[in-house]
Amino acid sequence: MYIPAAFRSDDPDLAWQLVEDIRFGCLISGGLGLMASHLPFMVERGDAVRLVGHVARANPQWKELEASPVLVNFLGPNTHISPSWYTTSPRAPTWNYVAVQVRGRVRVTEDRETLRRMVLDLSALMEPDGSPWEAAKLDIAYIDKLLPGIVGFAIEVDHVDVQLRLSQQNNADDQRKVRAALGAGSLRERQVAETMTRYLGRLPE
């Protein structure tokens, strides 16, 4: 991923926080031909970092995942930025966005206990706070009926790139004007405004 210096972050904690915020990524592999699947991911942090997920057994991509390195692309909040929002002119339209790209090698698993734990952990992780539904209370027999339909995997991460294009190339006044315009806009625009508020202070000067 091409990242201009103004938009790059090399903070690994920020990288995994962004992945956990976005959660839904595009798994791209090229072992036997270029293939992509959109999936939710869990992050396992330890001495090394792993991305964990599963795919439908009917999805042929799983058969080639161990053949070569893979790329997972996470695209966060993003929106058009109007030149009319700047104090200085002339200016060109641009796009604000958050993106994380992760590279690594995959280990596939069909072990039932591992798959069961993956499904329960992901379900518990993603269920909203206060929800009356609990994955842990599901009938194990019901879960076991579902397991033959999926294949699990873990990606041993060897590289991660983070790009936060959040108007930080502009002066403080222009940043405020962009954030204010986005904050009064559509849901997509408000999400980018919130992201600017949350992350601009964590980027290098």
From TrEMBL:
Organism superkingdom: Bacteria
InterPro entries, sorted: Split_barrel_FMN-bd, TR_PAI2-type
Pfam families: FMN_bind_2
Gene3D superfamilies given in the database record: Electron Transport, Fmn-binding Protein, Chain A (2.30.110.10)
Protein name, per record: FMN-binding negative transcriptional regulator
Species for this entry: Tardiphaga alba
